[in-house]
Amino acid sequence: QVQLVESGGGLVQPGGSLRLSCAASGSIFSTGVVDWYRQAPGEQLEWGAVISGVSYTAYSVDVKVRFTISRDSAKNTLYLQMNSLKPEDTAVYYCHQDTTWGRGIQVTVSS
Predict the structure, then answer these.
(1) Do residues 69 and 36 make contact, with C-beta atoms less than 8 angstroms apart?
(2) Burial of 107 by CB count in 10 Å (0-12 exposed, 13-18 middle, 19+ buried)?
(3) Helix, strand or coil for residue 42?
(4) For the segment 47-80, what is each residue's pLDDT rounded down to a tens digit?
(5) DSSP string, 69-102
(6) How buried is 39 (Cβ within 10 angstroms: 0-12 exposed, 13-18 middle, 19+ buried)?
């Protein structure tokens, strides 16, 4: 059974950067569709970024330019580089592939 485990979250100040990682137990990050979602306190789950095929990527309006999704297929790892972080980015971040979801990791942006 495929499992996804997020890491790299924590507390950062506004304007700071953070890189999230999502490690897969199987080779599921080769060329398939993989996404990052997030859920802020009291808010609905929000789609943020996707990577598919060799290099196709797309982002939500809220994270475009500031966030970058990437993956290392050899390491079976998905990444989300987050720059210029804002308090509004505070949320639990989840990686997702097909029917598999990670357990989520907290990102808090506060001064």
Answers:
(1) yes
(2) buried
(3) coil
(4) 999 999 888 999 999 999 999 999 998 899 999 9
(5) EEEEGGGTEEEEEE-S--GGG-EEEEEEETTEE-
(6) middle
Residue identified by tokens 């949320």 is 91
Cα 82 to chain centroid distance, Å, stands at 9
**Residue range 2-44, pLDDT digits in tens:** 899 999 999 999 999 999 999 998 776 777 899 999 999 999 9
Amino acid at 47: W
pLDDT of residue 54: 82
